[in-house]
Amino acid sequence: MKIRHRGGVRTWLSDQVGKRLGTFGLIAPSIAQCAVGAALAWIVAVHLLGHTHPLFAPISVMICVGVGAGRRLRRVAELVVGVSLGVGIGDLLVSWIGSGPWQMALVIALAMTLAGLLNSGELFVSQVGSSAVLVAMLVPGEDVGGLDRMADALTGGVIGIAAVALLPASPLTIAGKHLSGVLDAFSTVLEQAAEAIEKGDMDLAAEALEGGRRTQTAVEEFEAALENSKEIIMISPLRRHHRARLTRYETAAVPVDLALRNARVLVRRTLAALGEASPPPAALAELLREVSEAALLLQLELGAGREPMLARQALLAVAARERPKNLGFSANVIIAQLRSIAVDLLEATGMDHDEASAALTPLNEPSEESTRG
Questions:
Q1: What are the strands, taking DSSP E only, across the chain?
Q2: 13, 50, 129, 348 from 160: Cα distances, Å
Q3: CB contact set of 73 (below 8 Å; sequence gap of 6+)
Q4: d(CA 64, CA 159)
Q5: At what angle do helices 329-348 and 309-319 cross, to 10 degrees?
Q6: Burial of 83 (C-beta count, 10 Å sphere; 0-12/13-18/19+)
Q7: Which candidate, 59, 52, 131, places its Cα nearest to that of 88?
Q8: Are 314 and 294 within 8 A, CB to CB?
Q9: Which of 50-65 are b and which e, b meaning 16 or more Cβ less than 10 Å from the residue's Cβ?
Q10: E strand or H helix at 68, and its extent?
Q11: Is the distance from CB of 65 to CB of 163 less than 8 angstroms?
Q12: Distances from the Cα of 33 to the Cαs of 30, 55, 58, 232, 264, in angstroms?
């Protein structure tokens, strides 16, 4: 027992280390961009602009680059405007009322109120407030004008963008890792639902439903990662050749989201069906597993940079499969959701909606008797 326990601990530790290294691999380029960009911004502000303490230059780089997914171009624009407004308000108020705790409170309140009236964006408002604080408290009495601080902020923003362009993260790695998380979650939900049908286990179906409800966060993270990846390709000439491959991820984004939403409905109906007098047949479990495996094929093919033909063929085979006969109401709803999921995933492989829908077996096929007649 001890050996088995130690093996389990080792496996868990290995998984955790792998996850941490994978996460670090995503943010490592941003760390390098922040470090190199901040140093360059300081050097430029000191030696080219002649500023003695260009505090806003490295700060601008840090906010511009950030760590993780984000819209850097909009962030830089808000940063520069926010710093300028905060510095202007801070300089004006400090020249009237001096500096101190109550003056700082008043500066923050007035600066953030004005910022909120102009732009309700969280970054913009917080940047105005923090810039006003720096002017009021950290550098009181220093013979540096607001225009100099604005120049420092602009310098940092430009160098931050240059750092993103010249030390870019891999847009395909960012998008691929997050889409893998979405498709892994989707596959797990269907696998659990299939097992619940086979075993008639309502607890397992409830667990699958709970897992499905948690997937929306992964979808939102993928959407943000995709926006970040598109921006990297737009900014960096070193990543332009990735545009065609990233297009496949863009094609898959909305259909995969829809497939997950339909999967949640499917699992909810599975839970209801397991409580009925006629539970869903085991044949449905096999269909769920085939769709689950097709989703994993889609993940692998996109990650390898290939057209997802194997995933498409697997989904077409499921779409052409005849429906089990004599199903109850809930089982029919499950089949309907599975058909919708098949169409969603076929669209994720690059098929258009009409073509994907046409691949489905018709719901009302004529019987042998009516054909003979």
A1: none
A2: 36, 20, 21, 34
A3: 161, 231, 235
A4: 9
A5: 150
A6: buried
A7: 131
A8: yes
A9: ebeebbbbbbbbbbbb
A10: none
A11: yes
A12: 5, 18, 11, 13, 40
299, 184 in Cβ contact below 8 A? yes
Q: What is the pLDDT of residue 120?
A: 58
By the 8 A CB rule, do 320 and 333 touch? Answer: no
CA pair distance 79, 71, nearest whole angstrom: 12
Distance CA 264, CA 310 (A): 25
Concatenated DSSP letters for 145-210? Answer: -HHHHHHHHHHHHHHHHHHHHHS---HHHHHHHHHHHHHHHHHHHHHHHHHHHHHT-HHHHHHHHH
Amino acid at residue number 345: L
Of 132, 124, 127, the C-alpha closest to 92 is 132
CA distance 33 to 159: 10
- pLDDT digits 0-9 by tens, 39-52: 999 999 899 988 88
241-289 pLDDT tens trace: 888 899 999 999 999 999 999 999 999 999 988 887 778 888 889 999 9
Q: Is residue 6 classed exposed, middle or buried when 0-12, 13-18 and 19+ CB atoms within 10 A define those classes?
A: exposed
Query: Could you tell me the two tokens for 326?
Result: 């004599």
In sequence order, what are the residues at sequence separation of 6 or more whose Cβ sits closer than 8 angstroms to the Cβ of residue 261? Answer: none
Q: Give the whole-angstrom CA distance, residue 78 versus residue 124.
A: 5
As a whole number of Å, the CA-based R_g of the chain is: 28
- pLDDT tens, 298-353? 999 999 889 999 999 999 998 888 776 667 777 888 888 999 999 999 999 999 99
pLDDT at 371 over 60: no
